[in-house]
Write a structure and sequence with these properties.
about 350 residues, alpha+beta, Immunoglobulin-like, five-stranded mixed beta sheet, 7 helices, about 15% helix
Length: about 350
């Protein structure tokens, strides 16, 4: 339909109840050039395939399909927004931009919007009241509209633009770049809580314990537990640790850690071992077995990983067993613990 294309083309899918609006929008858009003229020619010569005449009551035209990609909680420029110029450019209109994320409008563009033209700037619901010319001038300028993903937000958001003259548009925003812990938060908590910094200490922070079971979110995530379901168990002897029923990922059957003393039938000596569930592919979580003789000074000297086992029906977690290589001295007390830390930033 476009003939021979020799350079990238950015297209706005447009539907209109009146053909003149579609043609004018294409011709006046700064995104369009001679390549799109081929489309207009085909449009004018086609009575059926291109001229749908879709009627959207109250709308001059409907534009969609633009996409912006950004990283978690980082600022991203949103481009491709332009009010139709079929009306008087000096006509004063009111335009509302809304999203889950934060929207910031530039206020120092020459012949563009000023702070007096903007209500609720740097929020998720910004109102512009000015002429079509000034609004377009600002939105078409580099960094004219900046989108910042809401706190802890991952996934798909939309910047919705509407005006009192009937203009309506959607910009899809794909927010990526979070850690596995961020994704775990999204999977387990409401976005209304995650975007509220006041809920960090009680709900979604790594040190929070929203289900009051004594397991922090850091540990719930590390061991595949459910932060919204109380897990009332502690370290047990591995004789009671049934791997077959421990599938990881919100297991309610067994605790995620067990300890045991393994006796070497050849040497007759015994060694203290610790077995625990761990995530297979999250490098931000560190599992550190430690030993002590007085519960004050802890270290990992002489502790080695001796076995890694798959977990039934779960590809995200595995069972790891560590052994204290020095034999158990029955004349001394010896303690073992598992320290879990994370490099993921809240």
């Amino acid at each position: 339909m476009f003939g021979t294309l020799n350079k990238p083309v950015e297209i706005w899918p447009l539907f209109s109840a009146e053909n003149s609006f579609q043609g004018a929008a294409l011709l006046n858009s700064t995104l369009m050039d001679t390549t799109e003229s081929a489309y207009l020619n085909d449009y004018d010569n086609d009575a059926n395939n291109l001229k749908f005449g879709v009627g959207l009551g109250g709308f001059q035209y409907f534009a969609f399909g633009l996409e912006t990609r950004g990283e978690k909680e980082k600022s991203t420029t949103v481009t491709g927004i332009k009010l139709p110029t079929t009306n008087d450019l000096n006509q004063v209109v009111q335009v509302t931009l809304s999203s889950v994320g934060n929207l910031s409008i530039k206020t120092n563009v020459v012949n563009g919007l000023t702070s007096n033209d903007i209500t609720n700037n740097h929020s998720n619901n910004v109102i512009l009241t000015s002429t079509i010319s000034k609004i377009n001038r600002t939105l078409e300028t580099r960094n004219g509209l900046i989108y910042t993903g809401a706190l802890n937000f991952l996934g798909n958001d939309k910047v919705t633009i509407s005006s009192d003259t009937g203009y309506f548009s959607l910009i899809d925003v794909k927010i990526t770049g979070g850690t596995k812990y961020d994704q775990w938060l999204v999977d387990n908590f409401n976005i209304s809580d995650l975007t509220n910094i006041l809920k960090k200490s009680d709900v979604w922070g790594e040190d929070a314990d929203p289900d009051f079971d004594g397991w922090k979110n850091l540990h719930e995530n590390a061991f595949g537990l459910n932060p919204n379901t109380r897990n009332l168990y502690s370290i047990v002897n591995c004789a009671d640790f049934n791997q077959a029923s421990t599938t990881g990922g919100n297991s309610t059957v067994n605790p995620p850690i067990c300890q045991e003393i393994i006796r070497n039938s050849v040497t007759g000596k015994s060694n203290l071992c610790l077995t625990f569930i761990r995530q297979k592919s999250d490098d931000s979580i560190e599992y550190i077995p430690e030993i002590s003789t007085d519960l004050k000074s802890w270290n990992s000297d002489g502790i080695e990983e001796i076995l890694v086992e798959a977990i039934t029906n779960n590809n995200e977690f595995e069972l790891a067993t560590y052994m204290v290589m020095n034999s158990v001295d029955t004349s001394k007390e010896q303690f073992v613990r598992l320290k879990v830390s994370s490099e993921a930033a809240d």
